[in-house]
Here is the input.
Amino acid sequence: MIEASDFRNAMARLATAVSVITTEGESGAHGFTASAVCSVSDNPPTLLVCMNQAARSHGHFVDHKTLCVNVLSARHEALSNTFASKLCSKERFEQGTWGTLVTGAPVLADALVSFDCEIEQVQAMGTHSIFMCRVVAIKHAERESEADESLVYFNRAYHQVGQVESA
Here is the structure.
């Protein structure tokens, strides 16, 4: 049997993009920092997002049935830490500039890319929920200065990767 600590140590060696996942509905705006986001299909465009069921905003995502995956650039490290902190939802959204697309979930104005989604299925697996999300709108960085290096998490630390070439 594999121990949880051994699994976590091994997963620390898997580099992942860092995103802030947001939702908004009757209970207001909520969000969290995630590294567990994955493309599922391009037809229909679908992502999966994993969220700890013990997270205080978990129920809001399930109830709202929408979310936005805001992929962070290297300069968003402080924002990532804010959305991973114990600050209340209102305080979290005081950082950054936010708008909306189709679903009404908060979209970070200067994210590398944002995927506005409807949650079509929720699957419980161990301590987490897997949200299967149909992408209904996409927003790319509007200015070249926003299309900088991606923020990734590897070996329990933030790193920067990539350099977007001008076309």
